[in-house]
Structure formats: C-alpha cells, structure tokens
Amino acid sequence: MPRQRISLADLARIANSGQDEHRTEPGERVMAGFDTSGISQQAHPTVADLSECLFFSPGDGRIWLQDQRMVLLHSESLGSLRRELIDSIGLDKARGLLTRAGYVSGARDAQLVRQQWPDADPPAAAMAGTRLHALEGVVQVELVHAAYDAVTGAYDGEFLWHNSSEDDEHIAAYGVGGAPACWMQVGYATGYVSTLFGRLIVFREVNCRSSGDPHCRVIGKSAELWDDVQQDLRYLNAQAFVGASAAADGAVPVVDLQAYAAANPGTEQSMVGTSSSFNAACHMLHRVAPTTATVLFTGESGVGKEMFASTLHRISPRKDKPFVAINCAAIPETLMESELFGVERGAYTGAGASRPGRFERAHGGTLFLDEVGTLSFVAQGKLLRALQEGEIERVGGTRSIGVDVRVIAATNVDLRQAVREGRFREDLFFRLNVFPIHLPPLRDRRDDIPLLMSHFLAHYNKRHQRQVAGFSQAAVKAMYNYGFPGNIRELQNLVERGVILVSDGEAIDVHHLFSSGESLAQDVLSLAWRDGGPATLSLLGARRTAAPDEAAGTAQGTSKSGALEQAELALLRQAIRRSGGNLAAAARDLGVSRATVAYRAKKFGLAV
Ligand SMILES: [Zn+2]
For FRET with 358, which of 97, 168, 283, 481 sits at 20 to 30 Å CA-CA? Predict the structure, then answer.
C-alpha cells in the first residue's frame, strides 16, 4: 500500500509555480554567500511552510515529515535513555553517540529543505534548520549573527538556544553544573549546516543552561576556522576508534601496516563517518576486535575493506605484532603458494634461498587476505589446511611450522554464490565466514559525504602542500548526486584531483572533480557545462552529440533536453551578469547574435 503523499506545501508550490516567471536556476542561487543582514524571518520556507510537511497518519501508525518517518517521543523517555546511556557507557561515549544521532537528524532535515525548496535563498535555507529544530520540539533558536562566504567557504554563526529539551532532561537527572549538555542539538546543527553547504561546519556549545548559564550559546564555524577542531571531531567519528587512533599517531611498531598503507592509497587512517550503516559496521568491528575470531569483510570495491582490516588489527590485542597483508588478486597463481607459505632452498629452479611466507611473517599478529575470492582451487585447499591445523609447510619443505595468526579476509564477490557455482570451496567459506562484516557502499551512507570531502580536502591539502579553499556549491551538489561506483576510493581520487587542479585560495568546481568520463546525473551535468573558458551555446550542442553513450544510456530523452535547457539558462544568466546586463556584450561573450540572446532571455523569463 505505498501511497503518494502530497503535502500542503507541495500543493502551494504547484499552485504558485505557474505564476512565478522569475524562478531562478537552483544551483545559481545557492552559490551566493550571505550575512545576517540578508536573513529575513519571512523568507521561505517559513515555519508555516515547514509545518505543512508534517503529516499524522494514525490509521497506519505513522508520522511523516515529508518523506521521513518520525516518531513523537516523550522528552522524558529520551531523558531516561540518555541517563542510562551515560550510566552504562560513560559520559564521553554517550556524548559521542548522541552527537552522531543528532547529526543524522540534522542531515536529514537539510536534505528535506534542499529537495523541497531548491530555490530558497541560502540564508533562508540555513534558517530553516533553526525552524525545523523548533518545530520538532527540540529547542527555540535565536539568531545572533551568521555569515557565509561562498568563495572561501567560510561559515561563522552564533545562536542562542532557549528551552533546550536536552537541558531540561539533563538538569532533571544531574542538576546544574559541569559541562555543556546539548549534545544531540550540537550534532543536529553540525549535520544540518554541513549537509546544506557540503563542507564540514562544526558547532560548539560555549554556554549552556546545564552549566548554570541563563541560556545556551552555540558557535558554528567551518572546520578549518577552529584551532582545536579535533576535540569536536572525536564526537563525530565512531567512538570505538577514538582511543585507538590517538595511539596510532605515536609510532606503532607495525612496519608492514605502514608499508601496506603507503602502497595502497585507500588505507590511510580515515575512519570517517556518522551514518548509521557505517556506525553499525564500526560497532561490529569493536565487538570482534578483542577476540581471535576470523573476520570476513564484504562489500563493493573501494568501500574501505583494507582500512577496516588494518583498524581491526590496530585496536586488537595483537596491535604490537605484525600486520601482514596480501592481495590475492595481485599474485600470480604459480607464486601464490610460496607467497603464503614460504619456500625452502632448492624447492624449484630459482629458489636459491629459503624464505618465510606471509603466514610465518604474520606470526603472533594478523594476516589480511584481500580479494580472497580470487584464490585458485589449489590455493584454497592449502589455505584451508593452514587455518584448520594452525601450521604450514613451506614449498619444498618437509617439516610443519606452527603459526599463530589471526586471519582477516575480504571479498567484493558474493562467496555464497561462488560456492554454489563451484568456484569456491564450501568448507573454506565456512572457515572464513565466522564473523562477517558488511561495509555499505557510499551511496548508502550519503550523510557522510560532507565529512569525507572535508577529510580528504584537508588530507590532500597537507600532502600536496596546497591551500585549496573548499568546494563550490555546484561541486557539492554534484557530489551529492553522484553514484560513486568506486565508492570512497573514488571520492578520495576526485578530491585529490581537484586539489591538484585548483589554485591556492580557490574552490574546487565540478569540472575539476569530474574530468575523466564519470557519468553524472542529468541535472548535474548541466552544471558541468557552465564553466570551461569562453563557452558558447553551439558548444553545448557539440558536447551533447560528442557524448552519445551518455545520451543512449538514459532512457528519458526529456530529462536530457531539460538538462540542456538548464545549461543554456545557466550560460545565459552568467553571460548577462558578466556583461552587466548589456545584451550585445553578452552575445559577443557567447558567440551568438544579440537577437538570439534577447530572444532566449525572454523565453526563459530572465529580467534584463
Ligand atoms: Zn545547553
């Protein structure tokens, strides 16, 4: 019984859209920066607009905020959950958990505003978060000041919070005194604004009713503007690794791990994420780390299986022993056995000296078998024996060598399916599948995209000694809409490419990111056309025919022409603005006649 729900807000928009001839292209609007003076209490979406997205459907036991299911929860019940969390896992962990839960909620609300009011002015879209927060009964927000610079990406805002529900509950349980306590709300603000602007903007509560202040005061700034942002980020990243990653900053004597990370650029320490699917995987990792159980990571290429594997080792009791990794797909079948188990001198032509294999080198530590699904049947049999008996025999050797190794395996193929098709030994599968952890693809954890973009921007700025400012709004929008078939590794590559292409102080734009044939969603493709030197309208046609696979790849020809129109509109607006409204100059700029520009401007309802 899926139903199409149309809210009052939808109806209002449909009714108005006919009369509104000066609708602007959404991406264009969002490009602009703002400061407090541009923020009006009347700007849409107002509280009334937002409340029209709220539906009660008692007949089937659901409440909706547009397309998100909500629940009406007693504040006191949330308070008791909070108290039990603090009492059972400690203040710091509870704070992290609640901050991340708040982040998800803020990120969802920002998506709602982006989808429902794509034309909203940036300040109004930003203020909508405060209105939603109030509408949801969490807190009343008073703006002190806020400013956003679209060029540098710098955000700076200050707000007062009144009637904080979190404080009510915290004070009821613990009384006044101590540190600020509006953790979920801080997470919400961070999640909302970061998702809206596509860069990490961190909120911190500097005064709080729970610590005896008359009201709470929060300050939000772009991550790079905080001197000591690490103290906030520890609550945004999965708690299990807070202590571990601090320890890893010191020299951990695991040479192989460092070497593996250097050789495999996907494995830098970047356990970044707040989304629930990512956190679920982190939770599993934390549970299994202290044991010696075999762990099998599954998931698509590029989701971070190597990183999870190395983190698992790093937070396990074996962390001071070797972490040895082998990519089974990268080793020729004929060498596999000697790689894994070592070789005795004279075992075959060319075996001039005895050497240990990876199993022996990992003794006492962890052996990571990446892409285990590619092992040949023979190698599978030998691996199985090593796992069952805890001992190995070198190639050409006669004695058994006992090994104490924790095995972690990873695969991007469905091993059950491989077993059914007779390509993978069933007994080995059951040996490996003791504790499976599935890592979600990036498209299922889009909430983490701004966090990951910020993370890799900072990472590559440092590595390449650059000072790239951030991402343009068009770039952010493109990233949100992109499918990321290559997952986190692809996002990482895109950001690195952008950092290299862009000059210091500039922002990364769409064409810096997507420059090697990635196929973008149609509405985003239009933005890619916007730049690239002296663009002309005819160039658009050429570009369009030059990409036949893209055109053929989409069944809906109409959305293609919609994208083309969007692109044309964007080019026109840009040219007209650049020329200060002089149509002749705009026409020269575009390489078309003045009459064409005038005709098309009129067609699009552009005010000139
Ligand atoms: Zn507070």
Answer: 283
